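Support case: user asked for a sample of complex input and structure output to validate their parser. Sending the pair below.
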Amino acid sequence: MTVSARAARPGELPPPAGPALPPGAAHPRSGVTEEGLARRLKALACTAPLHDLEARKANLAGEYTVYAMAELGLAAIDLVTVTMDFDTGADHEEIVGRLRPRVAAQAPGRDPAEYERVARWVLENLINVGSVDRGFRAVYGMWTREGEYIRRDYDFKLLEEVPGPDGHIFLRATDEAINVLVGALDTDVTSAQIAADVKLDHLIRRGRLAEARFAAEQARYRTVQYAESLRRALDATRRNVRAVDWLRAVPDLIDEAFDHVADRYRHENAILINIRRARDEAEESERKRGAAELVDIVQDCIRRHTQLQTRLMEAGPLFRAEQDRQAFAAPSTRTGLDLYGQLLRPLLELPVGDARRVTDRFFAAGTGLRTPVAVRLHDLTEMLLTPPAPRDHLGAELPEPDVSLTPDDSRYSERQHDAAALLLDIPPETPRRLSGLLAEAREADPDLGYLVALLAFHAASPPVGTALRQGDRTLLVAVDDGTELDDPEVGGADLIIGTAVLTGARPEPEGPTPG
Amino acid sequence: MNHDTAADAAPITSADVGDAARLVAFGLQPKLLPARDAEYADLIRRHREDPRFAALAAAVAAGLGLVVLEVSPRAGMAVTAGEDSVFAVRMGDYARRAGTESADRFLHGLAHLAVAAMAFPRPEDLADDAYVGRLSVHGVDAFVRQACRRLEERAELRGEISDPEVDGPSLEAAWRVYARRSATGATKDARRLAASTVGIVAKAVAFLVDSGFLQRVSDDGGGTYRTTARYQLQVRDTAGSAAMSELLELGVVAVTDGSPSLLAAAVDGELVPGAGLPFHGV
């Protein structure tokens, strides 16, 4: 037995070079295998919530068996991961909204409210809203090195809710979720990134677009994960310089990340050129579309690198500023209790049963006092006997607003404005002279001439920027070609008025989408 | 007021006792400051000038089961509840779940400790009477989470298995309990999720505001607060040392020479050398 084999060698030094194992160690109960087994069990457990979605859909009230819940669950994690940014996560509603088309596609022709309900159900189950921790727990067992079999709890989350800076709640995919999603269970971030790169490059050269797309997406998830670890370190530094190892860990992380960004820049630009070529040369429309999507993904990757790089450049100054603020403040001659170093941190390492004794003491001594509230029996009876006030769902009645009519002091009526607009609705190909317009206007209404003239003058300096921003298609433009206006009412130039057609109202995304 | 007539030989009258009790009564209203109430300020002055009156006030407080931390114009009559006093706050009254659920009980207590640690991050801050701490609800949560993450990373580095045994929930490492509790959560009525860590910290902070220990500054970061002199006294003189002695009893901090000063725990090779930081690493 392994147990006895180990017990028989208590005085022996551990073998100097790792895997020189004693004969019994190859036995399944040896520590190394057990850890590997535990790791695989944990990885397997991470997928359980997805299977659970499938299993429990039958219990829902309604015909929900038609939906592929595991697919929806994975898609939801996917959406959250892609939407995750350096600072924020994904919004609940946004994820539900983006998940809905997929839900609808699975069971066409049903009530849209049902799609919404299904999308929400999937999302809530991935958060596990019902549990106190909003997470999942799996039990796994393993042999210890002493030969004792112990069952342990493994707690994990797939989607977690985090507070945003403005009080909003965001969703972020956890490391576990990202690992499950990309299928690379228990791998190192950096090495996985390199592997994905090589694979991507290779696939594109061989023209395997579908697989290249998969690899590119994988690369993007890894990038997000990278940014996430940096964000945590910087956040922690801002709060407490002590909490982060700025001597080794963070500088290493920053150096690594800088190399990574530089490397990825070169790499992705090269890939971009490759895929663009593939896109432009592709004959098949399906292939063309695939390449175009890949362009989008790689562009998104590049955008994320830029963001990461900006943060990296800010990291050094941030550390120095925080160090000044936190460490070099005028030292006091007296010293007190180091609440963090002496109390909070050692306490967090204790088993919760012991730690609770300390926090209980702190609570009892640290909350101050409360003057006890004595209940008057008289008040209590009255309160208990009072019928509950009927709750009005509509709230208090709004007072009727006292509105006084402002006198209509506009010079021209609504009808006159309409007439002027009609008159100035000139076809783009045929500009007209102001004099002609004025004559026509006065024919209809003697007052209209002045209004048309005003509108024409306004068109002499048209608000092009505003029109572009609003996405207007056309714009009234007046041009002075030097001809004098001969008119009894208005003077100046006899403007040429025409309609300009605005093109490129919005900047088109780079490269038209083929197909 | 009759304190100006107080002579050494004059016997203590019932009016004196009444005034002393009045001063203690002011002390029981922690949000009230001497600067805002002329009568309170008068009594504080009398307390300083008349030792017999001071002794009388101390006796009244002790009789009520109160501990006097400080009597000064800045903090007022800072009193706190003795351990078995009727004024003491019980965990079961504080949070319903905390009475029964041991994890919740721990988290509520930890939230109070974390607020104090965030309010007075360095030892000097706690010692310096002029120091005013600032903290935010989200900041406290993130601060504890970071500490938990460091411990998690360290456990991983050492190859420790931090997953608790199924049969021994009280043997689970404390940091894990905090780390696995959700930080926040969407609720149907857009209120804070009470059982989330942000909800628990927010509750602690709101309670401390009612105790006159914190003052709300703004809504940033889930609510930003600054400390009062009374809070500093409470943490420094009562809570900190009480928790420390409990920790010592558990044998966590070894005070080698038996001196009463609380020395930094032995730093297990995590000192950040040459980094210019007067602190040891986490």
